[in-house]
Amino acid sequence: MMRAVLLQTAGLAAAVIVAGPASAQDTVGVASSHSTRGTWELDAGASAHERVIGETVVIGGDDTQIDYAATVRFQGKTTGVRFKALVDGPEVPLVSLGGVTVGRARVRRVDGGRTITELMPDSGVQRIIEHRASIDGQTLLSLLYDKTGKVLSILVFRRTA
């Protein structure tokens, strides 16, 4: 049986179809209790983003530090960024796959103990804010929006490791 789970965060909402029976526990509180750490592959068919054709995100660390690496494939090119940041710590360098600093990143704790990631590239969008939540431990929903609240993309990932 398929079910739609509504995830609402920062005033934004998105429905994701996941396998399994519906339950009264399909709420943000339960969704955010699943770990977002691991290796995730973009489900392009379920994502609302017209240009990205492939993305792999690896999230590590613990409750106090986040290790983040993303590799994106689009328009025949591969690019990516990585950083390590303390939760509620200072901004840290956002580093490209080639080892060049391309901006800054920061991880902040919000209501309910969840964290958001702020990416501040040196060029392009001034600030990208990412909310991540795992719906069922196997599906990761990533909402990306700018500082005005405009949604840039809604990405759905499936756990690979």
Topology:
Elements: E1 2-9, E2 12-19, H1 28-33, E3 38-42, E4 54-61, E5 65-74, E6 77-86, E7 92-96, E8 101-109, E9 115-121, E10 128-134, E11 139-146, E12 151-159
Antiparallel strand pairs: 1-2, 3-4, 3-12, 4-5, 5-6, 6-7, 7-8, 8-9, 9-10, 10-11, 11-12
Mean pLDDT: 75
Give me the CATH architecture, please.
Beta Barrel
* Uncertain parts: 1-33
- Please, how many helices? 1
Radius of gyration: 15 Å
The CATH H-level superfamily is: Calycin beta-barrel core domain
Task: Please provide the count of β strands.
Answer: 12
Strand order of the largest sheet: 3-4-5-6-7-8-9-10-11-12
Number of domains: 1
Determine the strand fraction and express it as a percent band: over 45%
H-E order: EEHEEEEEEEEEE
DSSP helix fraction? under 10%
Oligomer: single chain
What does this protein look like?
The protein has 161 residues and is mainly beta. It has one domain: Lipocalin (Beta Barrel), CATH 2.40.128.20. 4% of the residues lie in helices and 58% in strands. The longest helix is centred in the N-terminal third of the chain and has 6 residues, at 28-33.
